[in-house]
C-alpha cells in the first residue's frame, strides 16, 4: 500500500461541520464545533487512518 502525506486541521474540520450542520438546520455553538472536530480527529487516529505528528519548533 502506498503512503501519502495528508495534513488535517481541526479548525478545517470545525468549519466543515458548521457548513454541513447549518445546511441541515442546526446552529451549533463554537464550543460544540470544536468538540466535534476533536472527536473526529481522535476517531481518525483510532481507526489508523491518520497518525498524529507534532511539529518541532525551529
TrEMBL record:
Pfam families to which the protein is assigned, alphabetical: YozD (PF14162)
Q: What superkingdom does the record give? A: Bacteria
- InterPro entries, sorted: YozD
Q: What is this protein called?
A: YozD family protein
Q: Name the source organism.
A: Rossellomorea aquimaris
The root-end lineage is: Bacteria, Bacillati, Bacillota, Bacilli, Bacillales
Amino acid at each position: 500500500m502506498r503512503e501519502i502525506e495528508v495534513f488535517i486541521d481541526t479548525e478545517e474540520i470545525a468549519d466543515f461541520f458548521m457548513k454541513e450542520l447549518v445546511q441541515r438546520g442546526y446552529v451549533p455553538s463554537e464550543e460544540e464545533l470544536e468538540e466535534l472536530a476533536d472527536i473526529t480527529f481522535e476517531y481518525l487516529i483510532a481507526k489508523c487512518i491518520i497518525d498524529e505528528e507534532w511539529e518541532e519548533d525551529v
